[in-house]
């Protein structure tokens, strides 16, 4: 069974549009990963988004403390911490139980930390679907393959003292 998780930005969507996206993709749990869960759109402030989801039959969970962006030292450095790993494991456990979407405020995942969360999940075997709009998704380009060690016959000359020992 393939493990699938969605990411979705609140952006400037209407409440109806946002709930329609959750329903379209069968999302039953919304994991809010905004470090600061507020919005200039009243319906996307944390307490209102939780109620909006509850009224639509979607569970709401705030994970911004564990997985939110805006970290000192940058998000990729934060991803190396135990706090990030614990948050990711919590998200994975929940997503194994019911269809889950990770949300933040940016519509486009390549402009926010959802891309980093998505990459971490993909590295752990998840199929990550970054939702842009109804029937429109973004699939990141896979990173280049890891560099392989240089074969011994192509390594630079080694020197001992002033004389090359082998080339």
Report on this structure:
This protein has 167 residues and is of the alpha/beta class. The protein has a single domain (4-141), classed as Cobalt-precorrin-4 Transmethylase, domain 1 (3-Layer(aba) Sandwich). It has helices at 15-24, 46-55, 64-67, 75-78, 82-97, 114-123, and strands at 4-9, 29-32, 59-62, 100-104, 127-133, 136-138, 158-160, 163-166. The protein has a six-stranded mixed sheet, with helices on both faces. A two-stranded antiparallel sheet has the order 7-8. β7 and β8 (163-166) form a beta hairpin. Residues 150-167 have low confidence and may be disordered.
Q: What is the gist of this entry?
A:
With 167 residues, this protein is an alpha/beta fold. The chain is built from six helices and eight strands.
Cα shape? globular
Helix content: 25-40%
> How many strands?
8
Any guess at the CATH architecture?
A: 3-Layer(aba) Sandwich
* Helix and strand element order: EHEHEHHHEHEEEE
Rg of Cα set: 21 Å
Spatial order of the strands forming the largest sheet = 3-2-4-1-5-6
Our estimate of the beta-strand percent is: 15-25%
Distance between the amino and carboxyl termini: 51 Å
Instruction: Count helical runs.
Output: 6
Poorly predicted runs: 150-167
Number of discrete domains: 1
Mean pLDDT: 88
Major beta sheet summary: 6 strands, mixed
- CATH top level class name: Alpha Beta
Query: What is the CATH T-level topology?
Result: Cobalt-precorrin-4 Transmethylase, domain 1
The chain-level structural class is alpha/beta
